Amino acid sequence: MQQLISVGIDIGTSTTQVIYSRLSVDDTSYASQLSQMEIVDKEILYKGRIYMTPIVRQRFLAMDALKTILDREFEASGIRREEVASGAVIITGEAANKENAASIAEALAEYAGNLVVAIAGPDLEGILAGIGSGAQQKAREQLIRLVNFDIGGGTANAAVFDKGRLADAYALHIGGRLIQFDAAHRVTYCSPFVHKMLQEENADSSEVTAQQAESICREFADILVRIAEGRCPRAEEKALMIYHPPQPVPVDACSFSGGVGEFVYQEDAPADNALFYRYGDIGPRLGLSIRQRFAEAGIPIVKVPERIRATVIGAGVHSMKLSGSTVFYDAELLPLKNVPVVAIPYRQGGSEEAFLTRVRQKAARNAGDADICLSIPDLKKPRYQEIKSLAKALCQWEKESGRRLLLVLPCDCAKVLGQTLAICRDDAQGFLCVDNVRATDGMYIDFCKPVGGSVLLVIKTLIFKN
Questions:
Q1: In sequence order, what are the residues at sequence separation of 6 or more whose Cβ sits closer than 8 angstroms to the Cβ of residue 131?
Q2: Is residue 311 part of a domain?
Q3: Rounded to whole angstroms, how far apart are CA atoms 148 and 129?
Q4: Which of 268, 306, 402, 449 is the most exposed place for a label (fewest CB within 10 A)?
Q5: pTM, 2 dp
Q6: Taking a C-beta distance cutoff of 8 angstroms, is the pair 108, 9 a contact?
Q7: Pairing of strands 156-162, 145-151
Q8: Rounded average pLDDT over 34-42
Q9: Residue 270: cis peptide before it, omega within 30 degrees of 0
Q10: 95 and 158 share a domain?
């Protein structure tokens, strides 16, 4: 058995957090099987303080301040930097939209060994929080359809788990720091989305009163209730959606994480102004409004073990494997590092257009033009006609998105699919297709230089504390 230390760094809209873990990795295969390394145990060694994310002029993440935070936490943990074998930096929420977010992520790589570095899109953030909070495990254990709302300073990121399977992910401009106050309880910041809501109500949006702030919190809570009940979004709700609306399907229960999630569960918290203004924003008031509205609507709220730390990544654990002998790749593309996996269900027997729609929707969760790796985990012994249909849909998505085709498949069909793609594209260069790889959302892959005609992979799995 081997042990390694991992660090997770989460830089969010409101807060920055660090967590250190010890992972135990062992060979779980039988004597007659090939080696299969898996995490068999994980232990949280140190939970750092929760810091306010240092932002300059609402535009930039403050590099020096972030490094000071990390240096302080390394010293407090008693863990030497050279002891860290792996980890992850995740930049989430409104912090991901700051002008220097990408350069910050790269600069912080020195703090976490062999890092996964990701600027999480809003849907991906919801998925990470849903797993990290323990909501996915609750849905699996209770055999229910559960939505986890991870509500931070700028956004509410949701993931829906149907008996543990990810069924939907979406995000809204709902958060605790969309209205901020000073020490005298005067409004110092009001989000453009709040201004728009007030204008639609024919209210004066030049100065937000405490009564209007409470009304906004109630409206935010109403929107979440209507979504949980499976109602189609109204026009004003669509304006708050980020990228796309949720599926209009009711859930059995809800859970909450993030900073605002803490206040949803504080049933004994006093409903006074001292609490509401303690943090200089509407976070506590929003949490109370959500708890009240969900109780009035009769929607059960499930308690999850992790809330404000839900998106802190425990580790990025690495397992080496060699792809199958039937591969199709352009050696000029390799190596590629830290490519996020997007799992696309194939559902054999479905239409080509339906598959293409799923590719468009799920690929859009990883914003920007960076590489993503498409995984088709349920593909089993496809017929040639299905291979042709797959190739046609994938080529169409490649043209629309401008992204490179990087594919991993669970079954031995990478070569035939690669050859069909080359014919469809009129070009055998610029894409990669490997098989015997089972990868899903939340994983990252390093594609290394080819070895003897095969492609060496490093699969990095994000590990969460449940």
A1: 159, 442, 462, 464
A2: no
A3: 8
A4: 268
A5: 0.69
A6: yes
A7: antiparallel
A8: 59
A9: no
A10: no
